[in-house]
From TrEMBL:
GO terms, biological process: lipid transport
Alphabetical list of CDD domains matching this protein: SCP-x_thiolase (cd00829)
Record-linked InterPro entries: Thiolase, Thiolase-like, Thiolase_C_2, Thiolase_CS, Thiolase_N
Protein name: propanoyl-CoA C-acyltransferase
The entry's keywords: Lipid transport, Lipid-binding, Transferase, Transport
Pfam families (UniProt xref): Thiolase_C_1, Thiolase_N
Statement: the UniProt record of this protein carries the keyword Transferase: yes
Record lineage: Bacteria, Bacillati, Actinomycetota, Actinomycetes, Pseudonocardiales
Bias (Polar residues) ranges: 1-10
Molecular function GO labels: acyltransferase activity, transferring groups other than amino-acyl groups; lipid binding
Amino acid sequence: MTAVSVQGSGMTRFGRHPDRTPRDLVEEAVAAALDDAGLEPRDVDAVVVGNAVDGLMTGQESVRGQVVLRGTGIRGVPVVNTENACASGAVAAHLGWQSIVAGLYRRVLVVGYEKLVHPDREKAFRAFDASMDLAEMHALHPSPPADRTIFMDHYADRSDLDEDVLAEIAAKNHTHGALNPLAQHRTPLGAADVLASRPIVGPLRLRMCAPMGDGAAAVVLSSTPGPVHIDASVMTSGRGDDASMPTAVSRAAASAYERAGLGPDDLDLVELHDATAVGELELYAQLQLCDPGSEDALVKGGTTRLGGARPVNTSGGLLARGHPIGATGVAQLVELHTQLTGRAGARQVDGARIAMAQNLGGIVGTDVACAVVHVLGGPS
């Protein structure tokens, strides 16, 4: 099987960019990734572009990738568009990886982007909600709230949540994000600051939830050996209504560990899909970072903080780095590439050699609609 390396990476700062277009954001991320890889646009053999809701937000459908790439100088190569909710970017990376493994291309550019900032915030909330089975959503929520996406209600629908633990998770990610110059929120927060933020629903506070934002991220995948390599790329779909099956994330993680020939104890850092602090809490056991029921202890023990045994979301995660839906999965890979090449500055994980990125999207029945896990290795 052809080995796949990450030759270069780049992204915009995530945040509120009301005066920038999707094309403008993509051009910046692509130029940064090509420059990092030491390549020119003519060196790209194919492009896979992940985006979730541009059709709902701007009306651009069908050829989104070809449109946003128009000013990048990339001409005539195959362009594939992927749409799979919040996992759209990670799915794009998975397809790019597949095409190199299959021997079709030498260099594939992977792009994820999203433009969510809009004068009508409810429009963005309803775009998020479209990542569910709408018939099911309308049956459960005939009158969706105007001040949030229904996903927040889903995450808050538990009676066993400890607000202090959720606040610690959010504070960790905001503290990490303060060290990331490309993060949307760069103010370090303590648990008390998080708990003092505005209530959203249930135990969730504003700073426990990923913000709306715009952004783009890109990575160059290559068959040329490099210091950072993809040891596993796994995509699964949800179990739907069959609650006897393991979750999509659990199955993806187990398969990724097997394919990479390692286990959770081998990981030096993890980027996971913390759409809310509850989301991060629920993922720890699914990714085998701890036993089920030990999530609170994992948080309180400091394992997931910078300086801990296995830092989680050194970029700030979705909570602080931001969550422009289609860009998120690629941004996670940008962070891992930055860490594994020793260029993360104040948030650098000492000796980082093996890392995992986990991205998910949508909800259908009892599970997420899609999950993607990547395991990356760096210099020995």
